[in-house]
């Protein structure tokens, strides 16, 4: 990832489907470790998409792991210093945006209290957003103008769905909504495929996939089968960790379905 925006060298299109802000917000792009190491194209797509939407985007080079894997393994108190580093690294930006619901949920709700930085930590909670949440709630995109002629199935990751409330889940009696669907459903040619069990866990769960391998694989196979049975061409989602798990199962069973982060689809569709 490059350290700062390349916006000056681009011809940014004038878009009419979101409410423009008086001044372009300065975004710090927060990229999870697994995206940085295995799926850098997702980070690039997130950067390009935000720039197309008129944001000034920087990638703070000092960022490291947010501490989520350690916290998930039961060592939450040992992530204090990664939390302190996060707060220092992302200070001074209007917003912090990440293409990952699980990492955003960690820094918002599971990062332990950082002694001496209580005020900074409290302020950070209102500035950090998962990508689709930022597009719908802050930029207030109405109907993205683009084209993407594919049948798309969406995997709703548990942290985003049940932690950040990026959509309704079946165990709650809420009015139905889905922020990813809101962004994708009006793109020309894109067919949003409704699944039989639209909010079921894929079985990844971070360290769960390691400690409970057999159960994790079975859950992933069931989740993948729902997409395959509906004739999905591309499986998308907001967390590459879940998509990585499903893609591994798909490749081993030689399923032809493709996998793309929602940032990639939006970036490819919007010209």
Give short descriptive properties of this protein.
271 residues; alpha/beta; Glutathione S-transferase Yfyf (Class Pi), Chain A, domain 2; Rossmann fold; 4-stranded parallel β-sheet; 11% strand
SSE order: EHHEHHEHHEHEHHEHHEHEH
- Number of helix segments? 13
Strand order of the largest sheet: 2-1-3-4
Number of strands: 8
Biggest pleated-sheet summary:
4 strands, parallel
Assess the beta-strand content as a share of residues. Answer: 5-15%
The 3D shape can be described as globular
Task: Count structural domains.
Answer: 2
| Low-pLDDT residue intervals, each spanning 5 or more residues | 1-19
CATH class of the largest domain: Mainly Alpha
Measured distance between first and last alpha carbons: 21 Å
**What is the CATH topology classification name of the largest domain?**
Glutathione S-transferase Yfyf (Class Pi), Chain A, domain 2
Helix content: 40-55%
Mean pLDDT: 90
* Estimated radius of gyration: 18 Å
- Mind telling me which CATH architecture of the largest domain this is? Up-down Bundle
